[in-house]
Amino acid sequence: MNTGTITGNSDLIAAIRDRFANVDTCPFQGERIFFENAGGALTLKSVVETSAFFAGIPDNQGRDNVAAHALVDKINAAKADMALLMNAKSGQFFMGESGTELLFRLIRTACVNAPKGAKLVGSSIEHPASRSAARRWAEIAGLDYVNVPHNDETGTVTAADYAALMTPDVAVATILHASPVTGMGMDVAAISKAIRAVAPDCVIIVDGIQHAAHGQIDLAAYDVDGYVISPYKMFSRHGYGMAWISDRLSAMPHDMLINAPATGWEFGTRDTGAYATLSDVVAYFDWLGGEVSDETDPRARIEAAGRAIHDYETHLTDSMIHGIGNLPGLKDMAHVQIIAGQDNPAREGLVSIVVKGMPSPDVVRLLNEQGIRTHTRKADHYSGNVLDPLGLSDCIRISLCHYNTEQEVAQLLAALKGLGDAG
């Protein structure tokens, strides 16, 4: 009988790590610990192989030959796999330049089809990918933008926060599923329900880019119209984004070629290999679900994988915050400040900190010199909405995934403790 967990299962952790490229070494740096997953997760070895295979095929989709038919079959299979992964019962998936570009397209379409004088509601916690698009296209389309303030202390926004500012004339809404700065996840289903309770016909668009790697997406439960991911943050590769849109949003007038199919949203010939790598990602979640459960249904295995990923990543972030072995946790280091609190149940595999008296870029550099890859978030157009209210000019983002280990956390804690001892 499977235990349903990754935590403490060294054989399974080793098997997980073996499926990823460059899990503990960088081709340019050598040995390193990868705690920069929010900037782009590790890539599955199967994705690398699939990408190489399709890169060598000269044929395009839509022709009457064996290769072209096979390419179309691969794309259709990938879309079906994505529907399984994200539990989409209807609607369509399509590819774009990036997650940011797709959010702009979806939000633009929703805004220009909304009634003049209606409202668009979004939150201050959002990444600028959705927030910038919403602010820009609300103004162009003649909509009033309504900002839902997030809680600075918890790094979250709630359904109650949205409900407090909802009115029946809200035509478009944007939701961030997880913050790449605080690492906190939002309850998309609850927020969507609060929006529809007041404005049932509102077009709701979700930025799922940061959340996707953590393995739990359930579009059937969200009742939204758009959901966007960046596959390079979900174990695939750079160069494209993926969107799901509802049948209602699919049918809205949108940018398209004259006389093209009314519900077509893709422009030009897409990369079959990019689609095919998504099938690799779904196969990985399915495999992991089979390792942590006795489920035989593919969707049930994916759900089991998502639960196991969440639980293990929570174990790792708790170890980081509260300590591991004889090493003190971040909360016990006087020179460290944890952003959004030490015991925050919304946390998804990410801890952002400030080392007192040290600029964050210096800390990131010192960690990198010890083979620990982290990242600086500055109070700029990407992160100022979160850091400015806290009076912070920057922070160190430590973002992990379920292929990271307790030993890697211990090495990080030892390095950060050393910074305090040196001071």
From TrEMBL:
<feature type="domain" description="Aminotransferase class V">
    <location>
        <begin position="309"/>
        <end position="412"/>
    </location>
</feature>
<dbReference type="InterPro" id="IPR015422">
    <property type="entry name" value="PyrdxlP-dep_Trfase_small"/>
</dbReference>
<dbReference type="InterPro" id="IPR015424">
    <property type="entry name" value="PyrdxlP-dep_Trfase"/>
</dbReference>
<dbReference type="Pfam" id="PF00266">
    <property type="entry name" value="Aminotran_5"/>
</dbReference>
<keyword id="KW-0663">Pyridoxal phosphate</keyword>
<protein>
    <submittedName>
        <fullName>Nitrogen fixation protein NifS</fullName>
    </submittedName>
</protein>
<dbReference type="InterPro" id="IPR000192">
    <property type="entry name" value="Aminotrans_V_dom"/>
</dbReference>
<feature type="domain" description="Aminotransferase class V">
    <location>
        <begin position="33"/>
        <end position="250"/>
    </location>
</feature>
<dbReference type="InterPro" id="IPR015421">
    <property type="entry name" value="PyrdxlP-dep_Trfase_major"/>
</dbReference>
